[in-house]
Specification:
327 residues; Rossmann fold; Helicase, Ruva Protein, domain 3; 2 domains
């Protein structure tokens, strides 16, 4: 997990208030959660036996480039697990025929249990558990059948059945689903299938500052004492770790590294390439916040607290029984 760079945001953790929208988790907090809930139980049979909470499946959600797949790879490497990729792009067209999807899921589950520890990975999982939308059709204007080999939802029922039936507190098998578009998936199905969810936001200020410094130095770049690293961290708000890394790669070419002694690195060199990378808009961020409130239940709790604070006790009070009408 050393490549997953991040710092704790102590100020935000102290300011968190259930009456307000919670602050985004820091990268260091995400790393800690992944270590405690996935790496330790999978990597050690003893820890798995003594772990107080049995977690079979996780949902990683957040903007593209925020490190979801990177963390999955780190989990596989750290625990020496067998990796099974059940992503829609990987199962497309495989196991064609009636009820063949059941055989596919069953073979993966049996093999994963036989060679545990194992991680079953489902990228773009919103396609497996899609939200119901009226009028949405497949190619050719016709709605895809559930048994269609190109339809990712064909494994939905089998995955739910085998997860409940096959993965127990003695099985070191973890299912990890990743999505950058949680609003496209069924919130109800996500909540039912995944035991835990972890939100991967874009890095906060402290983490961005650490990332710029680490990536530049890793690529043999030299930062002078007067280099405005803090300004660069502020400017890159809303950009992913992938965007920061991509910017460093564009700026720190072999030619630029050779001439940095005579011409030190400057702030404008990074601003141009960074501006070409994708940024999270406010409406996109609002979708992630809305999903987080639903999946954690914080939204409902917050509404009740605000209603109670406003003195609206009638909504929460017991309902009076209606008497029967006399004939």
């Amino acid at each position: 997990m050393t490549e997953f760079i991040g710092e704790f945001n102590y100020i935000h953790s102290m300011l968190d208030d259930i009456k307000e929208t919670m602050y985004d988790p820091s990268m260091a907090l995400i790393r800690q959660l992944v270590t405690e809930y996935i790496i330790f139980p999978l990597g050690s049979e003893l820890v798995h036996m003594r772990f107080p909470e049995h977690v079979r499946s996780f949902l990683f959600y957040g903007p593209a480039g925020s490190g979801k797949t990177l963390v999955v790879r780190a989990c596989v490497a750290e625990t020496n697990s067998i990796f099974f990729d059940m992503s829609p792009i990987n199962i497309d067209g495989k196991y064609q025929g009636k009820r063949e999807e059941e055989k596919m899921v069953a073979s993966v589950m049996v093999t994963a249990k036989e060679y545990q520890p194992s991680i079953i990975y489902i990228d773009e999982c919103h396609k497996v558990w899609p939200a119901k939308k009226k009028g949405k059709k497949g190619k050719g204007g016709k709605k895809k059948k559930k048994t269609d080999p190109s339809n990712p939802t064909r494994i939905k029922k089998a995955m739910g059945k085998w997860r409940t039936k096959f993965i127990d507190d003695k099985t070191r098998v973890t299912i990890i689903g990743c999505t950058s578009e949680p609003e496209e998936g069924s919130k109800k199905d996500f909540k039912k299938f995944f035991d835990k969810t972890i939100y991967f936001p874009f890095p906060d200020y402290t983490t961005r500052r650490l990332m710029w410094k680490s990536f530049i130095e890793k690529m043999n770049g030299k930062i002078k004492t007067d280099f405005p690293l803090s300004t660069l961290a502020h400017i890159s708000a809303g950009y992913s770790a992938g965007s920061i890394l991509k910017t460093c790669e564009k700026v720190l070419t072999e030619y630029r590294i050779k001439h940095q002694e005579h011409r030190p690195l400057t702030l404008p060199e990074f601003i141009g390439p960074l501006s070409l990378c994708a940024n999270t808009m406010d409406d996109q961020y609002a979708e992630y916040t809305k999903f987080t409130d639903y999946i954690t239940g914080d939204g409902g709790k917050r509404d009740k607290l605000l209603a109670a604070a406003a003195g609206d006790t009638g909504a929460a009070g017991p309902k009076k029984k209606k008497g029967k009408k006399k004939k």
